[in-house]
Design goal:
Structural class: alpha/beta
CATH architecture: Alpha-Beta Barrel
Distance between the termini: 31 Å
Radius of gyration: 17 Å
Strand order of the largest sheet: 1-2-3-4-5-6-7-8
CATH class: Alpha Beta
CATH superfamily: Aldolase class I
Helix content: 25-40%
Strand content: 15-25%
Number of helices: 8
CATH topology: TIM Barrel
Shape: globular
Number of strands: 8
Order of helices and strands: EEHEHEHEHHEHEHHE
């Protein structure tokens, strides 16, 4: 597994836990509003070595609660199960961030009981997914991952980053049937500063009050609805 970034301590990426977050190198999406464009290629000139991470984790038992594997897209790496297993063996809870495009990998991880929390980025309504991802997407894979996650016993979150010009607020209620029954659903407001597509950096995010108008739609259908 190739890691392109590492934040040694985070209080916000793993609900209820103090964690470290590892960013895998390589992604199969090209979201124009992505703020981690440097993680798109499968290779990097300055990878973070797993041995260094592993030694760090051994010294943080009892100090950190969990490890987040993010990206990029972690499910592109064939040794993801091995890495998650080693982290579990050290006594840490594990969280996976994924775009949901590889449901077969997710299903295998569920069966092996290799993570304790999974967060999936739900980019858009099916009809607009390719535009939001900057590439062709197998919608059947996205929807299958959603169902796998909802039906699992693992704590989970779906999150949609809302981007003016890509998303219309009046269209977002149509996400309700997709996320209904989920543990958590979060609407994340777009942050333009480091958007991969420079034209997006001039876009003004939605007002918080505009997003709050959607709260009555999603609060009754998921256990926890959040706006960030």
């Amino acid at each position: 597994m190739i890691f392109g970034g590492w934040q040694k301590c985070t209080l916000i990426d793993f609900p209820g836990k103090i964690a470290t977050i590892l960013f895998t190198q390589g992604c199969d999406f090209r979201c124009p509003y992505c703020h981690n464009r440097g993680l798109w290629p499968r290779k990097t000139e300055s990878p973070v070595e797993w041995e260094t991470i592993f030694e760090f984790l051994k010294t943080r038992r009892g100090k950190l609660d969990g490890v987040v594997i993010s990206g990029g897209e972690p499910t592109l790496h064939g040794d993801l199960p091995e890495v998650l297993a080693k982290i579990h063996e050290l006594g840490f809870a594990t969280k996976l961030d994924t775009n949901g495009h590889r449901p077969d990998v997710l299903e295998g991880l569920f069966k092996a009981n290799l993570f304790d929390f999974v967060a999936m980025d739900l980019k858009h309504l099916p009809a607009h997914y390719a535009e939001a991802c900057g590439t062709n997407v197998l919608i059947k894979n996205i929807l299958r991952s959603v169902e796998l996650i909802k039906k699992s016993s693992i704590d989970h979150e779906f999150r949609t980053t809302v981007v003016p010009g890509l998303h219309r607020l009046e269209d977002l209620p149509a996400l309700a049937p997709i996320v209904q029954g989920a543990r958590r659903f979060t609407l994340q407001n777009f942050v333009p500063t480091h958007a991969a597509d420079g034209t997006f950096r001039a876009r003004k995010p939605f007002a918080r009050t505009e997003l709050e108008e959607l709260r009555p739609i999603f609060t009754p259908i998921v256990e926890i609805f959040t706006i960030r």
